[in-house]
Amino acid sequence: MTKTNALESLVIAGFVRGLSVRDVEATLADALGAEAALSKSTVSRVCEAIKDEFDRWSARRLDQVELDYLFLDGSCFKMHRGARAEPVLAAWGITTEGKPVFLGLAPGASESTDAWSDFLEELKGRGLRSPLLIISDGAGGLINAAQTSFARSLRQRCLIHRARNLLAKVPTHAQGEVKAAYWQVFDTDDVDLEPGPQLVALVQARIDAFAEHYRPSYPSAVKCLLADREQLTAYLRFPAEHHKRIRHSNFIERTFGETRRRVKVIGRLPGRDHLPVAGLGGARPGQSRLARPHHDPQGLRLLQDLRRQLLHPPTPEEVIDQAVTAAA
Fold first, then answer.
1. CB neighbours of residue 31 within 10 Å
2. What is the extent of the structural domain holding 136?
3. Cβ contacts of residue 310 below 8 Å, gap of 6+?
4. Are residues 146 and 264 in the same domain?
5. Which residue in 178, 180, 187, 185 sits closest to 214, CA to CA?
6. Residue 50 and residue 104 in one domain
7. 3-class DSSP assignment, residue 150
8. How many domains does the chain contain in total?
9. Among candidates 102, 99, 72, 71, which has minimal Cα distance to 88?
10. Rounded distance, CA 7 to CA 36, Å?
11. Residue 65 within a domain
12. Nearest alpha-carbon partner for 237 in 229, 225, 247
């Protein structure tokens, strides 16, 4: 039994690294001898079990998942020799208990609005409720779909992606200066303001000052910064201890990091049946300091208030009742 489990582990490892069923069988035969190697049918059974487990995971209910933060991203992988790379769409979340949860992984024909809408609606169909904040890059299809599927949620545009977009429009010799000035705009460590509208207004004023200073020299860069500017500061309404973790999408991009490294070696994923690689091969975002239980009472109250304001606003009747009660 121990030997069988060890061999099955080798089969799984080879499959995850991109070997075909035939390649796995041949590798075991070379290493262990024809008599010791597992049969092709056994190799196929083990590989099929991985896909079955992934299919069950992809269909599981999400009714019990309540999110503060939802991270969305896509990454392209070649799945067929000579064909263009195809996107894989992924969703990670941080629950109200501060725990990471891998929500979904699926192929997409593109990163269009339709592809992302199908992906997000499928998650909703399995019971996923609206998060407080959605963090993503600036992909238009993703943004459009997120705004439609989770209309009540706030949206944070990744500050790192925006910095790259901005610096691409600045001459090389000036990029160091502009980069430093850009990050100073969002540095609030020494600001004596609690998270909320006033802190948002302060940083928006800094954006105006940055624009006024650099517009004469780098108008294209300033135009890039000002586009969708409200979504650059949504994170400032959330607990300060989370700011540097939710203002960019690095949390989810780490999911694809190790997978890209492995696929670079083998050249491509051997078809869509290997999608579990994209989820199982990556780094674990749960190692992030964000993914810990919330302990700060003030931060917890802030999140609870945001949940009531954004996701459970009072009905007109309740507003009238509250006004009457306040007047009395």
1. 10
2. 61-156+256-295
3. 130, 132, 152, 153, 154
4. yes
5. 178
6. no
7. coil
8. 3
9. 72
10. 10
11. yes
12. 247
- 175 and 149, same structural domain? no
Long-range Cβ pairs for the range 180-186 (8 Å, 24+) = 181/210, 181/213, 181/214, 182/210, 182/225, 185/210, 186/159, 186/232, 186/233, 186/247
**pLDDT by residue for the chain (328 residues), tens digit each?**
455 566 777 777 676 666 666 777 777 777 666 655 566 677 677 777 778 888 899 999 999 999 999 999 988 887 767 778 888 899 999 999 889 999 999 888 888 999 999 999 999 999 999 999 999 999 999 999 999 999 999 999 999 999 999 999 999 999 999 999 999 999 999 999 999 999 999 999 999 999 999 999 999 999 999 998 999 999 999 999 999 999 999 888 776 776 676 666 556 565 565 565 544 444 455 445 555 555 678 889 999 999 999 998 877 665 566 666 666 6
Q: Domain check: are 280 and 138 in the same one?
A: yes
Residue 214 domain-assigned (yes or no): yes
Q: How far apart are the first and last CA of the chain?
A: 76
CB-CB neighbours of 222 under 10 Å: 20
Q: Is 322 inside a domain boundary?
A: no
Element (H, E) at 269: none
Spatial strand order in the sheet of 67-77? 100-107, 86-95, 67-77, 133-136, 154-157
Residue pair 143/165 in contact (Cβ under 8 Å)? The answer is no
Is the separation of the CB atoms in 60 and 126 below 8 Å? yes
Burial 286-312 (b: 16+ CB within 10 A, else e): eeeebbeebeeeebeebbeebbeebee
Q: Is 2 helix (H, G, I), strand (E, B) or coil?
A: helix
Count the helix, strand and coil residues of the chain and give each as a percent rounded to the nearest 5: 60, 10, 30
- Report if residue 310 sits inside a domain: no
CA angle 216, 219, 222 (to 5 degrees): 110
Question: Is residue 182 located within the same domain as residue 220?
Answer: yes
